[in-house]
Write a structure and sequence with these properties.
Family: Belongs to the protein kinase superfamily. Ser/Thr protein kinase family.
CATH superfamily of one domain: Transferase(Phosphotransferase) domain 1
Mean pLDDT: 83
Protein name: non-specific serine/threonine protein kinase
Radius of gyration: 34 Å
CATH architecture of one domain: Orthogonal Bundle
Shape: globular
Largest sheet: 23 strands, mixed
Distance between the termini: 39 Å
CATH topology of one domain: Transferase(Phosphotransferase), domain 1
Enzyme class: transferase
GO molecular function: ATP binding; protein serine/threonine kinase activity
Bound molecules: 2-acetamido-2-deoxy-beta-D-glucopyranose
Number of strands: 51
Number of helices: 12
Membrane topology: Single-pass membrane protein
Strand content: 15-25%
CATH class of one domain: Mainly Alpha
């Protein structure tokens, strides 16, 4: 036996020697092979924005090409590193000829197709990093032959199928990341034999079943994330002993059940524990604070807690976690009072979210100690008492959720000191008194929600002129009175205005017509009177209008029929009169409501209103006239005859008119194409202001109101353009912010040749893109376009605000993925607007458990949900681990 093994070893070393001798002798030819393989690689590249591939030319040795490193002793390619070069194309099978390759790094490009099986010929390959590409198909099975692999990183691609069992044979693996792909099936237990594994990342797939216990025995693992899959089962009771090196432990958005093991306290290096959105029961270990390196502790949306009075006593121990930044405990069953100890939490604390529990009592005195706090979520509990003035000292607060409690007293005017606040939710409490005018000092406010309280008095004109308000302003279901201030016209960024069920009176100010991106307008249940102002015809993107239960009068304006995206119009219980328009939304009786207006007539037959009498009366008058005329004289017979002829002509013309208008209605889609074609001078080169991979952008003037717009016409032949269009519409529909490019409309139709045509119409940015300013294309421009330091700073701040908003303030976080100077546009006042969302992605997009999310009560707004772990960490950690 022993002898056999020894002779086997001798034999293998001999063979290896022969092999290496063989390859050494082949070296001279080997560099030629490498050269041709690299040329093949180059030939498959179809997009190369930085012209890297043109540097791969004969003028220098391939060993000196960008991204290539050769081994000095044998002249063979050792490293191929083309990370973040914007390259797109497939990877050539010739890659398998680079037989001395040890590191292949294509991180963050747009490579697609299957990864070639020839990778199995790279027997010396140690690190493969293809994170952030579009590779599809299965993970190439021949990779199993690359037994030297220490790092395999293929996250954020489109790999399908299951995780291959042979991964267990790559016994040198130190790190493996297959996060954010389309992998199905269970996690193979063979992975448990990778005894050197430190980094284990499978988050964001469709994996199911339980995690094999063998994996929990790899004691070297420090990074463990399986979040956002369909996994179930318990967290093993002894995990803290079998994985004592854990630093990151994340399993959010799965179906894990059972309790949180107390043994976790033994894993003393833990920094992140995130098991949000699962079915865990029990509670947190009382001395969880022993883990004093914790930065994030997130168990939101589980079934933890028992509503018991001492249910939050574990919070006391967290005072020892001096670097804690995030605590997420919302959406559980915790009861009892908020302990005073929370006021001694880490000064680093940025997020404290404990909404949607059964927590009682007051906000503890001393909360202002937490002065780094950015997000405080106490919503949906049973908290009582007044909101302390000291809340106004949390200078860094960005989002404040106190809604759905039983707070009483006045809204503290000190909230006006929170100059960074973007979202303020105070609805569904018992607040009384007036709305503090000081709220207007929150100059970054995007959302202000005060509905369902007992607020009275007028709405301060300072507050209603907070022009940063972009998402919504809702003060409905209070006892507010007085007129709607003229300053409402300053809400030029607002999407939704809700003033319903109050005692507002007076006329609707004509200035409301300045709120041109309003999508929803709810004024019902007040005492508004007078006409609908003509200026509202500017509110072309309104989708939902409710003016019911007021005292409005006059005619229903025709322009409402011209609103292309209007879906609901409620004008019931007012005093409107005259004929109902017949165009646009008025064609569809089920989209409009006009009950309780006694003086209306006409409209489509489904409305069953009396026909308008005006025409009939004039007809009767004519008949009467005839009756008088006939007896007077036969002489006037001629006149009568001509009257008759004129009359019949009129009927004919009106009939013609009607058939013409139905014809135009049928052509609505084509009209929008024609309009776009017309306003851009037939897509003339003179109006071309830019072009990119997804299409061209033209300047145009809309004939309807003379406004100047930018029209982005998508090049549908381009791979992915159609998807990009849908994505962009989707993104733009859900967001709005002063530093984001505003979309006016989207067009999806046929052109005159019957081809598909898609375009987005944006506000025109008169100062062009930041790219034009930074890199002017000719000297003339260079002279005129200079950016002062202050301007540059302002632009940077604008872009940062936009990104901050996209990442943290949207319902789902949005990653733009394509921030560059050419996508930063400057308006007349040099305010920067971020545009081009064609590549943007929603961070929560792929979650298989989104439905569970949407079950959550409307109260649960302050929740942080689950925070996706970074994929980039893989490469950082791997580099770090392997170098050290
Ligand atoms: C390969 O190496 C030989 C000898 O070192 C050299 O003469 C030749 O130019 C190299 N060929 C390429 C393509 O680099
Ligand atoms: C790669 O190697 C294969 C097999 O050895 C050979 O047929 C092919 O021509 C090589 N490709 C290049 C580009 O040299
Ligand atoms: C060839 O590559 C060199 C640098 O590697 C570069 O300076 C040169 O411009 C390239 N030639 C062409 C024709 O692109
Ligand atoms: C690469 O370039 C350096 C100088 O830039 C030169 O010394 C070296 O010989 C070149 N290597 C090869 C393999 O051509
Ligand atoms: C370079 O090649 C030689 C001979 O094949 C090998 O022994 C050495 O380890 C290689 N160097 C590196 C840094 O890979
Ligand atoms: C790969 O290239 C990128 C960009 O050129 C560079 O930042 C990175 O450090 C390189 N990585 C390695 C491992 O050489
Ligand atoms: C894949 O590996 C098998 C042996 O494991 C080999 O026969 C086959 O040629 C390899 N395929 C490629 C494309 O290299
Ligand atoms: C990912 O792969 C699936 C199935 O292979 C395919 O239907 C889908 O279009 C791909 N997604 C992307 C973004 O390429
Ligand atoms: C993996 O290793 C097992 C046991 O050593 C062996 O039976 C199996 O064939 C290997 N699989 C591959 C794909 O190399
Ligand atoms: C905090 O740590 C100290 C020692 O560093 C310890 O005495 C104390 O009991 C800890 N407090 C909690 C609540 O765990």
């Amino acid at each position: 036996m022993n002898f056999n093994r020894k002779s086997f070893q001798i034999l293998t070393s001999f063979l290896l020697l022969c092999l290496s001798l063989g390859s050494n002798s082949a070296t001279a030819a080997g560099n030629v092979t490498d050269f041709h393989a690299l040329l093949d690689f180059k030939n498959q590249i179809v997009e190369d924005p930085f012209h890297i591939m043109s540097l791969w030319n004969d003028s220098i040795s391939h060993c000196n090409w960008t991204g290539i490193t050769c081994n000095i002793s044998n002249g063979r390619v050792m490293y191929l590193n083309l990370s973040s070069q914007g390259l797109a194309g497939t990877v050539t099978p010739s890659i398998g000829n680079l037989t001395f390759l040890t590191r292949l790094n294509l991180l963050s490009n747009s490579f697609y197709g299957e990864f070639p099986q020839e990778v199995g010929r790279l027997l010396r390959l140690q690190r493969l990093n293809i994170d952030y590409n579009n590779f599809g198909g299965r993970i190439p099975s021949n990779l199993s032959r690359c037994t030297e692999l220490t790092g395999l990183s293929a996250g954020a691609n489109n790999f399908t199928g299951t995780i291959p069992t042979w991964i267990g044979n790559l016994s040198s693996l130190v790190g493996i990341s297959l996060s954010v792909n389309n992998l199905h099936g269970s996690i193979p237990h063979e992975i448990g034999s990778l005894s050197s594994l430190t980094f284990f990342g499978l988050y964001g797939n469709y994996l199911s079943g339980t995690i094999p216990s063998s994996i929990y025995n790899i004691s070297s693992i420090f990074y463990f994330t399986v979040a956002q899959n369909n996994l179930d089962g318990n967290i093993p009771a002894n995990i803290g002993f079998t994985l004592p090196n854990l630093q990151v432990f994340a399993g959010g958005v799965n179906s894990f059940t059972g309790t949180i093991p107390a043994s976790l306290l033994n894993a003393s290096k833990l920094e992140v524990i995130d098991f949000a959105i699962n079915g865990l029961t029990g509670t947190l270990p009382r001395n969880i604070g022993i883990l004093n390196r914790l930065t994030r502790l997130n168990f939101e949306d589980n079934r933890l807690g028992t509503e018991r009075a001492d249910g939050l006593s574990f919070l006391d121990s967290l005072v020892n976690c001096t670097v804690l930044e995030t605590i997420g405990l919302g959406g559980n069953n915790f009861g009892g009072k908020l302990p005073r100890s929370i006021t001694n939490f880490s000064k680093q604390l940025r997020t404290f979210s404990i909404g949607s529990n059964g927590i009682q009592g007051n906000i503890p005195v001393g909360i202002s100690n937490l002065d780094n706090m950015a997000k405080l979520g106490l919503e949906g509990n049973r908290l009582t008492g007044i909101v302390p003035d000291e809340l106004g000292m949390l200078q860094n607060l960005i989002e404040l959720y106190l809604n759905g409690n039983k707070f009483s007293g006045r809204i503290p005017s000190s909230i006006g000191n929170l100059s960074s606040l973007t979202k303020l939710f105070l609805e569904e409490n018992n607040f009384e008194g007036t709305i503090p005018a000081s709220l207007a000092k929150c100059q970054k406010l995007l959302t202000l929600s005060l509905y369902s309280n007992n607020l009275s008095g007028t709405i301060p004109k300072e507050v209603i002129s907070t022009s940063s308000l972009s998402i919504y302003l809702d003060v409905s279901h209070n006892a507010l009175s007085g007129t709607l201030p003229y300053e409402v016209g300053k809400l030029v960024n607002l999407g939704k205005l809700v003033l319903s069920e109050n005692n507002f009176s007076g006329v609707i100010p004509s200035s409301l017509g300045s709120c041109t991106i309003l999508e929803q307008l709810h004024l019902q249940g007040n005492h508004f009177e007078g006409n609908i102002p003509q200026t509202l015809e500017n509110l072309k993107v309104l989708q939902d209008i409710d003016l019911s239960h007021n005292n409005l009068s006059g005619k229903i304006p025709e322009f409402l029929g011209d609103f292309k995206v209007l879906r609901h119009l409620n004008l019931s219980y007012n005093d409107f009169e005259g004929e109902i328009p017949k165009n646009g939304i008025f064609k569809n009786a089920s989209s409009i409501s006009i009950y309780g207006n006694k003086k209306l007539c006409g409209g489509v037959p489904e409305l069953k209103l009396p026909a308008c009498t005006i025409k009939k009366a004039s007809l009767q008058r004519k008949v009467l006239a005839l009756k008088v005329v006939i007896p007077v004289a036969l002489l006037i017979f001629l006149l009568f005859l001509s009257c008759f002829i004129i009359f019949s002509c009129m009927i004919k013309r009106s009939r013609n008119g009607r058939s013409m208008s139905t014809a135009t209605n049928n052509l609505e889609l084509e009209i929008s194409y024609s309009e776009i074609a017309k306003c851009t001078g037939g897509f003339s080169q003179d109006n071309l202001i830019g072009s990119g991979s997804f299409g061209s952008v033209y300047k145009g003037t809309l004939s309807s109101d003379g406004s100047i717009v930018a029209v982005k016409v998508l090049n549908l032949e381009q791979r992915g353009a159609s998807r990009s269009f849908i994505d962009e519409c989707e993104v733009l529909r859900s967001i709005r912010h002063r530093n984001l490019l505003k979309i006016i409309t989207a067009i999806s139709s046929l052109d005159h040749q019957g081809n598909e045509f898609k375009a987005l119409v944006f506000e025109f940015m008169s100062n062009g893109s930041l790219e034009d300013w930074l890199h002017p294309t000719n000297t003339l421009q260079y002279q005129t376009k200079t950016l002062t330091f202050i301007r540059r700073l302002n632009i940077a701040i604008d872009v940062a605000c936009a990104l901050e908003y996209l990442h943290h303030s949207c319902e789902t976080s949005i990653v733009h993925c394509d921030i560059k100077p050419s996508n930063v546009l400057l308006d007349n006042d040099m305010v920067a607007h971020v545009g081009d969302f064609g590549l943007a992605t929603f961070l929560f997009q792929e979650s298989s458990n989104v439905s569970r999310q949407s079950h959550r009560s409307a109260n649960l707004k302050g929740s942080i949900g689950y925070i996706p772990p970074g994929i980039f960490l893989t490469s950082l950690v791997l580099n770090f681990k392997l170098h050290s």
